[in-house]
Amino acid sequence: MFQPSRDQARQLFFDTWSKYRQREILTAMENMALEVILLHPEYHAILEDAERYLDKDYLPEMGDTNPFLHMSMHIAIKEQLSINQPVGICERFERLKLMAEDEHEAAHQVMECLAEMIWQAQRNQSQPDAAIYFECLDSRLSR
């Protein structure tokens, strides 16, 4: 399993954006990253200034949104959907997509539930629990 450091994950986005803008050939992972980057034009200026943003800390308590975490979570969701892991994620995503009438919005709803599951695992010092993930998703589907 690929587990990049913070800097490696960020560098993937910087390199992908640079290669895309220079019309260079992208790897499969870079193509996946590019799909996410193109959904977020608000991050393009950040991706054009690696020197300034590679080491920047984003503090939620200061109202900061971490664009690299956000884009990485999009990729994690894409990977989950590509293999239906945890089993049942694809069916729930399709239903959310129909409800939201927008794939990107559905991905953001999944992202909020993924973040909840990760937060719970960190808080409880336990492994991520798909039941928590699906409970969150199912509550969104029952609205």
Spans of at least 5 consecutive residues whose pLDDT stays below 50 are none
The largest sheet is: none
Q: What percent strand? A: under 5%
Output mean pLDDT: 93
Helix content: 55-70%
Which structural category do the helix and sheet elements fall into? mainly alpha
**Number of domains as seen in the coordinates:** 2
C-alpha geometry: globular
Count of DSSP E strands?
0
N-to-C span: 36 Å
Number of helices: 8
Radius of gyration: 16 Å
- N to C succession of SSEs: HHHHHHHH
Brief write-up:
The protein has helices at 6-21, 28-39, 44-47, 50-53, 67-83, 89-100, 103-124, 130-141. It has 143 residues and is mostly helical.
Give your account of this protein's structure.
The chain has 143 residues and is mainly alpha-helical. The chain has two domains: 1-71, no CATH class; 84-143, no CATH class. Helix content is 69%, strand content 0%. It has helices at residues 6-21, 28-39, 44-47, 50-53, 67-83, 89-100, 103-124, 130-141. Helix 2 (28-39) crosses helix 5.
List the helices and strands and how they pair.
Layout: H1 6-21, H2 28-39, H3 44-47, H4 50-53, H5 67-83, H6 89-100, H7 103-124, H8 130-141
